[in-house]
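Researcher: Good morning. I'm working through a list of sequences from a screen, and I'd like to move beyond sequence-only analysis. For each chain I'm collecting a predicted structure so we can compare shapes side by side. This is the next one on the list. No need for commentary yet; just the structure.
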Amino acid sequence: MVFRGILLALVAGVSGCANGGVAGAPPALAVAPERLPGDGASGAAAMRVANAPQLPKAARQALDLALDHYLRGRPGRTAVSVHDRTTGVQYAFHGEQSFMLASVAKVDILLALLLRAQREHRQLDAHQRALADRMIRFSDNECAHDLYVAIGRQAGLTRTLHRLGVRDTYPGAGRFWGSTRSNPSDQVKVLGVLTDPDGPVSAANRRYALGLMSSVTPDQAWGVSAAGGKVALKNGWLPAEAHGGLWTINSVGRLLVADHDLLIAVLSERSPDMPTGITTVERVAGLAVKGFTGARAPVTALGR
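Model: Good morning. Structure tokens for this chain:
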């Protein structure tokens, strides 16, 4: 069964990185240096998302009503944020509420890793590419920890995010990068920085990151992908001790659907089990995307 496979993948996700990367993963190429905050470039990508106009009032009210109606009957709490890069508009439903990111924090770590390499005028080395491959495509926690150390842990990730204008995300201490707290609107800003052609991430590194997120192992390809289109995503899932073992289930990604280029983050907590949380996140993603496009398309990997 699919959920049995997902749970097996969860166990596999804490394995080490001795085997390195997986054949066929996209390489990290030579890059131009990251533009510095002084020229206004580093934070501009996040600002474009933060300052985007809202979804028109009628559509916003209809989507608010649909989400409120659905979530009223679901356990826990859920929030979503969407930015449409095609039209420039955005939408958030409880988008400033804070959640534990779990493995969605790996996207933030990847962004900081790529920008660090750019500041040092170099490519990711083979070992870093192997770690990044397993961190994103297989959600390997040991690989994520190694890269968290490489970017300067809590202080390093905080500095990077603040420089980029992502200021409501609080990285976890020590090995607890998965306890990073953030909100959907901040994670859409992270996706905006990672994918913006005019942002600080080089074209080669944008392709690299989206290549990893477009080729996650099938057992982990649930979440925002349920909304259809071409998908690049990263999910997070965790039975949270702080919530008595109830589940945190998160999904973020970029969708190309019905002629729209959407950045979307759905964060949730306190589901009684993993399948229930996945169902909630997928339904919320579908409703949000339909609010922008009025349609649902078949799912394919982004760029394939």
